[in-house]
Amino acid sequence: MKSWYQRPSHILSAIGVACVVVVIVGGRVKAAGEGSITGTVKLTGTAPHMKGIDMSKDPYCVSQHKTPVTMENVMVGSSGGLQNVVLYLSEGLSGSAASAVSSQEPTFDQKGCMYTPHVIAVNPDEKYKVTTSDQTTHNIHPLPAPGGGNIGWNKSQPPGAPPIENSWKNQEVAISVKCNIHPWMHGWHVVVRGPYAITDDNGNFTIKNVPAGSYTVTAWQEDLGTQTSKVTVAGGAAAKADFTFKAK
Amino acid sequence: MRTKILQTSLLVSAVVVLLCAASLAQVSDYQQKEWLNSTAASSHVGNIEGHAPDAAMSYRRYCLVCHGPLGDGNGESAQWLDPKPRDFTLGVFKCRSTPTGTLPTDQDLFDTIARGLDRSNMPQWSTFTKQERADLVAWIKHYSPRWQTEKPGAAIVVPPEPEVTADRIKAGQEVFNRVQCWKCHGVEGKANGPSASTLQDDLGRPILAYNFAEGGRFKCGETDSDLYKIFMTGLDGTPMPSFSDNIKPEEAWDLVFFLRTLQPFHSKAKELAKGLNLKPINPNAPPPSQ
Fold this sequence. Notes:
The complex is a heterodimer. Chain A has 3 helices and 17 strands. Chain A is mainly beta. Chain B is mainly α. Chain B has 2 domains: 41-149, Cytochrome Bc1 Complex, Chain D, domain 2 (Orthogonal Bundle); 166-274, Cytochrome Bc1 Complex, Chain D, domain 2 (Orthogonal Bundle). Helices cover 43% and strands 3% of the residues of chain B.
């Protein structure tokens, strides 16, 4: 009689079991060692002039603003902090961390005929909501690049309409979103794998739930392009990464 | 001696060139065969099955001059045309029975070819036989990779058309005002709404809203159910969005009847509207206080 290791099928199943154990244990170890990356994104040089927006075509939009409204392409806060910069891990993510889908479900609101926030970030297949706080009809018209696997659509949202819930299939930095009725309205959906963050109005950010490891962090700004930085995250610790964009 | 070396090298390079050409031809031949054998290279319209290879000659003869050899809308004549010919490589089409963001059905494309697109340079291709049109549908589909990975959307359900009544026309005007069709099409449907002058298509080219008062054929058909489909699916690639989330099927028919009263044709809806004395709303009215 053959002993167990002489049968190829037995050896194969033993390897299979070992693999499953490694995957399970490996996953747990990683989950215990999650850290974060924090930092600040700043702009050096003179902040570009943001054009004013003329909303006079829609009296409702005008009525929603007491002060003049400007474009939001480059938003600089106190001490040069850059708002609406998306930070994500462009290199170094393991398979499971890259395919994890966040359950944050960000909201992209239309308020005072502006997108609030101006930029949202999501994982592929992560749900997001488009809502309207306005008493005027909008149409939401995302325009992903052709051939990238994300498909554009165009839906109306009259006053009081329920939220539109949707998701994007593939990574894409970034999808431009427009309203044809109010041509000044322009926002971005940034679809990235793995943990991500967006800077607040002072340029600060924290990427949470980052498994221990070495990464390339990419900072994306709609007009100023991207910056990268190599960061190593030790289990459970907070790593630091600061970025500086030069004004064009 | 010299001439002999020259002759030999010429011969060698000629052979190399020939070999290269032969292998390249084989590659393109292989790729062509691959897609021709795929299911995407056929179409189904009723009981007619279209085959892409059979459309090669008619595409070259009738379509290529505008839509281009690559199907990207960059044919020789495209530079003189406005609106521009459709770019088939994007797989985005105006006239669909399917929801926004989905592929049209074969029937939708088949109908578009026969109908043509008014106020564009796309004529009615009624001269084609049904088989030829079905073949062309299959051919058009091979230009976009979307058909390799996606199925057409499920056609929206158009309920049977109810009898037009004065109440329905009135209700239709309320829908028109509520979802604010007038933002682009104007309060009287004259394509002069506040946003009409800044409209752009997906490629950033200026585009006009439909003028109901002028009464031309719609881009996507002329029947009441065509009109129903236009605003419930939206015209992808243009500013016209889908209203299916915001207009119920019942209300959609009301809107159809009201829109008919804006056109300059004699119709039962128009006759009924005379007695209603409908007034367009004031687009510059102060916004409702909150």
